[in-house]
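Quick one:
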Amino acid sequence: MATIVDRNPGDTLQKLHFAILVPPMMNRAIPILLFCCGLLRLEAQPIRVLGISQPTDDQAHVSFYGEANRWFSRLTLDGQIQYDSTTSWDSLNIATLRKYTVVVFFNGRPEKESQRAAFQKYMESGGGWLGFHFAGFALTPSDFPQNWDWYHEQFLGSGSYVSNTWRPTSARLKNEAPDHPVMKGLPNVFTSTPNEWYRWQHDLRNRPNIRILCSIDASSFPIGTGPKATEIWHEGYYPVVWTNQRYRMVYFNLGHNDMDYQAHPAKTLSRTFGERDIDQLVLQSLRWVAKH
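Output:
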């Protein structure tokens, strides 16, 4: 008689009793079979994702969050991913975070010290994170000053925001790490969807633990249409996607849709998702930070 203790999704322990009648030479095979079944069960565990977006008046960020929320929701159709979304940063607490494999910041960062401390502990304990566009923004003085050194200096490594292109335009992106699981199978150069591109305080090539996964390819210049001359880039090195190798994280300088602000309400003119290479990039990033 054998007893297997199994934990069901409701965390109720069940004991299953059954008789095993096998020849003696099969005795050593049974533990192997049970072990393999355990591996299959582990592999079947879904990736649990929590997406967080802060309320904002920036219609481009509102448009992106709505689009991203729908895109991540569709990933749940195969049963391998479970996705929840919220607009409350109060979800960043130890009790809630332990339920999720990956947390996604769509357009901002937490401001309360308790939320920041819980997120830092989550990441230092092996949690996964994806961040888009405005999740990396910090500018002093502004409504979002650089007042969180661990996040902007150590975790992201980029420091403060410095400037951006305008209007949102697509760019050719250079695959800087074809050997990395996030970039595997992507072309050496591929085209992004339109975006407002950020420039940062620090050169990420010189930051400890930062690995740049893709950057703006030189064939993209000039980028931006103005009207200000400073909003059009003609040269330079601009990382777009990177990871901090001390954590399971990926940041994307993607997530600002082009908008017709003259329309009422403002009309979305471009999308971030829906282009094959960009979708593959984000999906592979999600699976990598989730350790799948």
